[in-house]
């Protein structure tokens, strides 16, 4: 039997009837989730004015299972956007305000002695949540920042040799201030590489800022919005994004872009190429397509690549322009 799944021709015999059921279930999930994606984008843009590109890319990062870093001056809406994303996603949420005296145990947790039971017991830190807002992450020392490395890569936290599995889905939204501000530490390259995307908010337009002056608190608006997704919805979207078809020419385009970045001192790592592919697949899903195109790659390229190779978005745009699309 020939079956067209998201535009891909698949041959299924009688012995593969279970695969037919899986395909049909996926199509049903898509039909139910597409309206929610549009509702999510509408609601987030109601809270965060005039930042459609940043909100869409942040959603792509969540669907791709990647963490996102917001970098900008204080007071431009980074924390508000993070709070909006967590609320609309319908996931459990914790916030850590990073400071220069914070310890790794303040993030992960600590073993404490229970005098009544005469034994040690583990007290979970705020990292044990589904969405973690690491606010002003670069105000803490690199040692404290490194407490997130294992969690962001593997979804696991290790304390005194014991591994604890974090709730799923697990998503880190971090904000950082520009390095020219006092009291900030540069994120190590290994930490930056754990973030799928780095996004910049920038100043709002004059009309958007006027609207902000006229309306009530953004936190009050967030509290009155209903959750759009459920935990299972997010897990389903992440699974569907992996199934987005990436044709051979698109894979070659990804490799050409990676090769172009490697002509400089710090090229894109293999982890970075994988992140670029996943982000492009998620972007295609948000755009309601069953296959990724070079347009999807280009839409996420700057956000995924610039912070990994230490370049500005203008410089990575120039790299992208030098690579021809087959």
What does this entry look like structurally?
The longest helix has 31 residues, at 17-47. With 326 residues, this protein is an alpha/beta fold. The protein has 14 helices and eleven strands. Residues 1-25 have low confidence and may be disordered. It has helices at residues 17-47, 52-63, 78-89, 105-108, 142-145, 149-154, 189-192, 206-214, 218-224, 231-242, 248-261, 270-286, 294-309, 313-322, and strands spanning 2-5, 8-11, 67-71, 93-97, 109-114, 119-124, 131-135, 156-159, 162-165, 171-176, 195-199. The strands form four sheets. It has a five-stranded parallel sheet with strand order 4-7-10-3-11. It has a two-stranded antiparallel ribbon with strand order 1-2. Strand 8 (156-159) and strand 9 (162-165) form a beta hairpin. Helix 1 packs across helix 10 and helix 2 packs across helix 12 (270-286).
Mean pLDDT: 82
Structural class: alpha/beta
Strand order of the largest sheet: 4-7-10-3-11
What share of the residues lie within helices?
40-55%
How many strands? 11
Largest sheet entry? 5 strands, parallel
Radius of gyration: 21 Å
Shape: globular
SS strand fraction: 15-25%
Secondary-structure element pattern, one letter each: EEHHEHEHEEEHHEEEHEHHHHHHH
Number of helices: 14
């Amino acid at each position: 039997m020939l079956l067209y799944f998201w535009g891909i021709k698949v041959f299924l015999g009688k012995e593969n009837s279970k695969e037919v059921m899986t395909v049909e279930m996926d199509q049903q999930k898509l039909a139910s989730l597409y309206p929610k994606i549009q509702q999510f984008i509408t609601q987030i843009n109601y809270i965060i004015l005039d930042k459609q590109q940043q909100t869409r890319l942040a959603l792509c990062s969540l669907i791709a299972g990647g963490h996102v870093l917001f970098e900008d001056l204080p007071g431009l809406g980074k924390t508000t956007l993070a709070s909006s994303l967590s609320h609309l996603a319908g996931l459990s949420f914790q916030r850590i305000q990073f400071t220069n005296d914070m310890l790794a145990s303040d993030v992960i947790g600590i073993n404490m002695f229970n005098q009544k039971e005469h034994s040690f017991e583990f007290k979970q830190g705020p990292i044990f949540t589904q969405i973690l807002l690491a606010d002003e992450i670069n105000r803490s020392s690199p040692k404290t920042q490194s407490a997130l490395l294992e969690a962001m890569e593997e979804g696991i936290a290790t304390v005194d040799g014991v591994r604890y599995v974090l709730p799923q889905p697990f998503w880190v939204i971090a904000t950082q201030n520009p390095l020219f501000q006092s009291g900030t530490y540069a994120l190590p390259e290994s930490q930056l590489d754990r973030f799928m995307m780095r996004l910049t908010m920038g100043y709002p337009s004059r009309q958007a800022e006027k609207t902000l002056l006229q309306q009530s608190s953004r936190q009050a608006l967030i509290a009155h919005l209903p959750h759009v997704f459920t935990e299972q919805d997010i897990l389903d979207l992440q699974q569907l994004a992996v199934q987005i078809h990436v044709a051979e020419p698109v894979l070659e385009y990804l490799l050409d872009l990676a090769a172009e970045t490697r002509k400089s001192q710090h090229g894109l790592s293999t982890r970075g190429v994988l992140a670029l592919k996943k982000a492009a697949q998620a972007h295609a899903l948000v755009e309601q397509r069953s296959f990724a195109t070079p347009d999807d790659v280009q839409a996420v390229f700057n956000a995924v690549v610039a912070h990994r190779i230490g370049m500005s978005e203008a410089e990575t745009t120039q790299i992208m322009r030098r690579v021809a699309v087959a």
